[in-house]
Amino acid sequence: MFKRHIKSILEKALARSRVILLNGARQVGKTTLVKELVKDKNYTYITFDDELTYLTAKGNISGFISNIKKPVIFDEVQRLPELFLAIKQDVDQNQEPGRYLLTGSANPLLIPRLGDSLAGRMEVIDLMPLSQGEINGKKESFIDAAFNKYVCKTPNISLSKEELYKKIIAGGYPSVYSLNTEDRDAWMRNYLNLILQRDIRDLAQIEKLTELPNLLKILSSRASNLLNIAEVAREIKLETKTVHRYLALLETIFLINLQLPWSTNITQKFIKSPKMYLVDSGLLAYLLDTNIQRALDNSTHMGKIVENFVVGELKKQATWSTIMPNIYHCRTTVGMEVDIVLEDRSGNIVCIEVKSSENVGSDDFKGLKYLQEKVKDKFIMGIVLYAGSLMLPFSKDLYMMPIHSLWEDAWEQKT
Predict the structure, then answer these.
(1) Which of 36, 75, 309, 388 might form a disulfide with 168, Cβ 3.0–4.6 angstroms?
(2) What CATH number is given to the structural domain containing 92?
(3) Average pLDDT over residues 78-103
């Protein structure tokens, strides 16, 4: 069993909040985590993936809630949205913390009828696929180290490009990490079928359900790039408003993430479109039909898969980081861009460029230097993450570091 880094955060939430929702994509380990968390406590466990339980509860929500022994775990609550109002009524009468521990494979904050149901009563915690640190049994501190001006020492044991690519293509779903390529592909295929055929139907009655796999393929080919909905609509031959709706659903069920643009009050204009990523680099590699051999044979897809992987690792680390930064991208109207901008609550930024190759040139620092000059003292550090093994300084507060420094724990402070 993998040790999840947000476990301690979840424990603290149980001690202070009446309702806790552990949110995340299917098969990222939510049920395993909550069961392990309360194994020595007297929690009732109910899953709405069980059809009889689902139909029983749906037939009489208030009676169902009244008769269930508390505290209780409700698994896959997105299947029964009526549950949220009944829980609200119950916790208004019963104030003890940890009364309801919920898991959900759809984000209630993105579902209009659910978003405000438990405002002020429910604490939402995100669980993503396994981070590389969780796989390796260590807690990563890349984000906190960077904001405190620490840089990764060159590791004693280097990670070859092939070894790195294998990790990226494997992704972070606990169930598939140890599978071979054939079995992993079968798992991914069944996983997508379950989500697109069942979870989407639970959330919305939509026309042309058969178009969703094709849409996901198109989005995968555009991963790690600016999202142009009009172009996607033309390619799939659907109305723009329909594509908007489908994208919202895919985001709600945690298949895609939209990374908002960063900007400030400096003179250069910034592009306002979001960038789009998939929730897992392994899922993206599957959809792009990229295995390790194709990756090493200079697959045109590896650049976007590697960037998707890095963004995913940073999103995971942000859930337990003391900094808890917002994560953006940056692109100006004249083409200057930075793949990732991490911004803390004081407006300080750490900027990151991602390279899938083993070589770094001065051009790779152009976007970082641009933001460094523009934001001045708010610029903490600029980093080019690449597929090589050396940590080297480029100039003041600008460094090249191996991608695997994301989960290294050997750091030294730079003044």
Answers:
(1) 309
(2) 3.40.50.300
(3) 92
